[in-house]
Write a structure and sequence with these properties.
460 residues; Growth Hormone, Chain: A; 0% strand; globular
C-alpha cells in the first residue's frame, strides 16, 4: 500500500516560501552576473597597462571559469542537500556567494599587487561558480517540493525569473552608480560599489530564509529512513541514472544555457564590444528588454502546467535555432541607424524565446529525478548544461567573431546547440515520468510517486 502524500502547504506559506527562495536566488544571480555586467569596465585594472583587448578577453574567460566549477559545486552541495536538507544547503550557498562577491569589490588592482590581481580575480570567480552550483538546485527543489502537482510549473516559474531579474538588478545598479558618480569616478573606483552591495543584500536574504521550514518531502524521507546515503554514487555511479543526466544535458540544459546566455549576456556584449554602442545606451536597451520580456516566464510556466513541459520547451529551442541569426542581423542594422526601439524589440524577442525554454525547466527537472537524489541529479544536469555550454557562450562567440571578422559569426554556436537539443528532446526525452529511462531510475530507487506529490490545488 502506498504511503499518504505529504500535506499541502497553505497558500500563505507557499507565497512566503516562493518569496524567500526567489529573493535569495535573485541575489545569488545578481552576485554572479554583476561581474559580467562590469567586465568591460574593470578588465583593464587587473592586467598590465596597454593590454586592454587581452584584458577583456581574459576577463570574459574568467567569467567562464565560474561556470566550469558549477558542476563541482552541484556535486558537493547536491550531496549535502540530499543528505542533510534543502534549507541548510541553500543557506550555505548564499553565504559563500555573498562573501566572494564582496571580496571582488575589495580586490587591489594590478598596479598595486601585480600578477596576484588576476589570479585572485579568477579564484574568487571560481568560488562564485562553486556556490551557484548548489543554489539553483536547492531553491528549485525546495519550491517544487512545496508545490501542488498541478501548479509546479506556475510556482517554480517565479523562481525562474530570478536569473533575468538578477541580471536586470545588476545592470540597474551599475547604471545608477554610473549616473550618480559620473563616468570618471565610476571608472576609477565606483565600479566596486555593485560588488560591495552584495553584503547588504545577503544579510537581508538570510533573514528571510532562516524563517523557512524544511521541505515536506525531505522531512518525510527522513522520518521513514529512506534518505540516500550516497546520492552522488546513486546519481552518477549507476548507468541508468547517469544516462538520464546526460540525456537531460544534451536534450535540454545545454540548449537552455546557450539560448539564455545568448539572449541576455551575448546580446549586451554584441552591442558593446562588436557594434561599439556606448556603455549607457547598450545597458539601457538591455534593461528595457528585460523588463518587457521577464513577465513571459510566468506565462510559459502556467502553459507548461496545462499543456506539458516539453510542449513549451521544444518550441522555444526551435525558435531560438531559426531566429537568432535574423534577430542579431536586425540588431546590427538598427544600431547602425540608432533605432534603439528596434534593438529593444529584437532583444525582447530573444528573451521570450529563452523564457519558453527556461520557465518550465525547474518543474521538469524535479519531475525527472526521484526525491532521494533530486538535489544532486537536478543540480548536476542543470550546471553541466547551462553552466558549461552557456557560460562559455560569450567567449566562444566573441572569439568566432574575432577569428572570422564576421560580426554575426558568434551566433553560430547557440544555433547549433539549440538545434541539437531540439532533436534530442523530440526523440529521446518524450514522456516525462512515462519515459522508459525515467521509469527505470525511479523503479531502481524504489521511490513511490505518492511520497513526492502534494495534493492538487482546489479548482473552486
Amino acid at each position: 500500500m502506498s504511503s499518504p502524500r505529504p500535506p499541502q502547504t497553505s497558500p500563505r506559506d507557499l507565497r512566503r516560501i516562493i518569496t524567500a527562495s526567489s529573493t535569495g536566488t535573485l541575489i545569488e544571480w545578481y552576485d554572479f552576473f554583476v561581474y559580467g555586467s562590469l567586465a568591460v569596465v574593470f578588465s583593464g585594472f587587473f592586467f598590465p597597462s596597454g593590454e586592454s583587448g587581452l584584458g577583456l578577453l581574459v576577463s570574459v574567460a574568467a567569467f567562464g571559469t565560474g561556470f566550469v566549477v558549477r558542476p563541482l559545486g552541484a556535486v558537493f552541495f547536491g550531496r549535502l542537500g540530499d543528505r542533510v536538507g534543502r534549507k541548510k544547503t541553500f543557506l550555505a550557498t548564499l553565504v559563500v556567494m555573498g562573501a566572494a562577491t564582496t571580496l571582488i569589490g575589495c580586490l587591489p588592482k594590478y598596479a598595486t599587487i601585480g600578477a596576484a590581481a588576476p589570479v585572485l580575480l579568477v579564484l574568487l570567480r571560481l568560488v562564485q561558480g562553486f556556490a551557484v552550483g548548489g543554489e539553483y538546485g536547492g531553491a528549485a527543489t525546495y519550491v517544487a517540493e512545496h508545490s501542488p502537482a498541478d501548479r509546479k510549473g506556475t510556482y517554480t516559474s517565479f523562481l525562474q525569473t530570478t536569473a533575468s531579474l538578477g541580471l536586470l538588478l545588476s545592470i540597474g545598479v551599475v547604471v545608477a552608480c554610473r549616473l550618480l558618480l559620473g563616468e570618471d569616478t565610476f571608472t576609477a573606483w565606483g565600479w566596486r560599489l555593485p560588488f560591495l552591495l552584495s553584503a547588504v543584500l545577503v544579510v537581508l536574504s538570510l533573514r528571510m530564509r532562516m524563517k523557512l521550514h524544511e521541505s515536506p518531502v525531505f522531512v518525510r524521507m527522513q522520518a521513514q529512513g529512506t534518505l540516500s546515503q550516497a546520492p552522488v554514487r546513486e546519481t552518477l555511479g549507476d548507468p541508468r541514472s547517469l544516462a538520464l543526466v546526460l540525456l537531460t544535458v544534451f536534450g535540454l540544459t545545454a540548449g537552455l544555457g546557450a539560448v539564455w546566455y545568448t539572449s541576455q549576456f551575448y546580446a549586451l556584449y554584441f552591442l558593446q564590444s562588436v557594434l561599439k554602442v556606448d556603455f549607457l545606451t547598450s545597458n539601457v536597451c538591455m534593461a528595457v528588454a528585460l523588463v518587457l520580456g521577464t513577465p513571459s516566464y510566468v506565462l510559459f510556466g502556467r502553459l507548461s502546467d496545462r499543456y506539458g513541459r516539453l510542449r513549451v520547451i521544444v518550441p522555444g529551442l526551435a525558435l531560438s535555432a531559426v531566429g537568432f541569426l535574423p534577430l542579431f542581423a536586425w540588431i546590427r542594422q538598427a544600431a547602425a541607424d540608432q533605432s534603439w526601439a528596434q534593438v529593444i524589440v529584437a532583444v525582447t524577442l530573444q528573451i521570450v524565446f529563452s523564457a519558453m525554454v527556461y520557465a518550465p525547466t525547474a518543474a521538469y527537472l524535479t519531475e525527472l529525478f526521484p526525491p532521494r537524489i533530486r538535489y544532486t541529479g537536478l543540480s548536476v544536469s542543470y550546471h553541466l548544461g547551462a553552466g558549461v555550454f552557456g557560460g562559455f557562450m560569450p567567449l566562444v562567440a566573441l572569439s568566432l567573431t574575432a577569428l572570422t571578422g564576421n560580426q554575426l559569426a558568434g551566433v553560430a554556436y547557440p544555433i547549433v546547440v539549440a538545434a541539437v537539443c531540439t532533436l534530442v528532446s523530440l526523440t529521446l526525452l518524450r514522456g516525462g515520468r512515462d519515459n522508459r529511462l525515467v521509469r527505470a531510475v525511479w523503479n531502481r530507487l524504489g521511490t513511490p510517486a505518492a511520497t513526492d506529490t502534494l495534493e492538487p490545488t482546489s479548482t473552486k
